[in-house]
Specification:
- The protein has 217 residues and is α/β, with parallel strands linked by helices.
- The chain has 2 domains: 102 residues, Rossmann fold; 105 residues, Rossmann fold.
- The chain contains 12 helices and 8 strands.
- Helix 1 links the parallel strand 1 and strand 2.
- Helix 6 crosses helix 7.
- The longest helix has 17 residues.
- The N and C termini lie close together (7 Å).
Length: 217
């Protein structure tokens, strides 16, 4: 694709939407931000609304993006991609829509035991459904961490955030339970990836790199 083409970035809040824009920017791509909610709590409220409401809102956002010249969409939000069925929207609009769940399907066959963390239970359930759908023999342990998301939105220093929310201890628990890696199942979480990596030997899995590769195809 022409790297100057604009790609619609859909996410839960202005903060993680901008993170998605920056991920694309790091690959030389141009993203246009389209947040679905004003903050994490409103995001969760949107994601537990009816399927009809969710599909209508996302359809409207995609149409706006298309009116602004976007032909591809980068869904930089795990819980959003879990809560909304993007396949019929892609077929309806003709847009190429990339979500984290695509990447998780490819990861599922590479592990026997996988820990994962998400922003909320919507994201947790969607990731679990996707991973088990791809590999029914996978052993999973999960946790949802909305308080950590709120700290990221507030701009807390990553090292302080890791300490405040006991993330090193959480990673240690996953490791002691036999998990082979920890999936960062929220697109906010790369914010603290480096700070946490210095305090755990557990590999941390971030789907962003593979998502960028897929948006280029």
């Amino acid at each position: 694709m022409n790297t100057k083409e604009s790609i619609a970035v859909l996410a839960g809040t202005p903060v993680d939407t901008q993170m998605g824009v920056e991920v694309l920017g790091g690959a030389g791509l141009t993203g246009l931000p389209f947040p679905l909610a004003e903050d994490p709590r409103h995001q969760t409220a949107f994601q537990i609304s009816s399927d009809v409401e969710k599909q209508a809102k996302v359809r409207s956002v995609l149409q706006t993006a298309m009116d602004r010249g976007c032909r591809k969409a980068f869904v930089y939000c795990n819980s959003l991609s879990s809560a909304v069925d993007f396949e019929p929207l892609a077929a309806e609009t003709g847009m190429r829509i990339v979500t984290p769940l695509e990447v998780y399907r490819s990861l599922a066959g590479q592990y026997r035991r996988l820990g994962f963390i998400a922003a909320n239970a919507q994201g947790l359930a969607g990731i679990e459904r996707t991973l088990y759908g791809a590999n029914p023999d996978l052993e999973l342990l999960g946790a949802c961490l909305l308080p950590a998301v709120l700290s990221i939105e507030a701009g807390m220093d990553p090292a302080e955030l890791v300490a405040r929310h006991r993330l090193a201890e959480l990673a240690s628990w996953f490791r002691q339970c036999g998990m082979e890696a920890l999936l960062l199942g929220c697109t906010h979480f790369p914010y603290f990836k480096e700070a946490l990596a210095t305090r755990t030997e557990l590999p941390l899995l971030d789907p962003a790199v593979e998502m960028v590769r897929r948006i280029l195809t």
